Amino acid sequence: MKNPRLSIFFLLAFASGCQRQPPNSLTIFAAASLVAPVQKMAAQFDSLHPGRTTRLNFAASSFLARQIEEHAPADVFISASPQWTTYLARRGFVDSTAIVVIAQNLLVIIADRQLLQLPLQLRDLLQEKFWPIATGDPSHVPLGQYAKESLTRAGLWETISPHLLPALDADAAVATVERGEAPVGIAYQNEAVDNPHVQLAFVLADSLQPEIQYTASVIKHSRNAKKAQAFVQFLSSPQGQFTLQSFHFLPPAHE
Fold it and tell me: Sign of dihedral through CA atoms 114, 115, 121, 123?
């Protein structure tokens, strides 16, 4: 499992050092659930562009958007929700006509490896033995907002919401279950499949799945706009899409 505290380190570093971006670096702000694929794609991109160094900052999309709003030196923003890309577009930080959907995802229920009896459907989370339920903070973290949408569709939000254990981002929610601090969690599919530290209990039914879209955009104050645009294009390229899907993301829906 990735280190969820990595995001906090970078948020502090970027907040205190906004003017220290190396002139030939490309800085990517990406949702916490994208750590592994973006690390790999950044390395691939750097190998195609010698002399460039790609720096990565991972956190909840909401935190990243607000850092960009405060003029953190970002070149590319990859969000786990179009909401936060739109947030920046409305404030003039992103070109609303150049936002690219690069992937989709699904919600799943994960469980502690030591849990012997797993929930089999969303209504099982009404049982006290599955409390607290880890997920992203529904007030601003995309994972938590998606979880709220699914629980609301199922008619369970009012009953289950008091028993949620909100986390700072998607990685932190999964880590909460990994550490045994919550018996179950609502997470993204890519964070659960092939994760040896949790059990995948079930994938939410299609009727309860929110539309989870990951968007990429170039920040208008980027000092490396051409390279930033090239990176966004790389995410949608066959190589970028192969990498994303190898980490269990879904391809963007065809228009």
Answer: negative
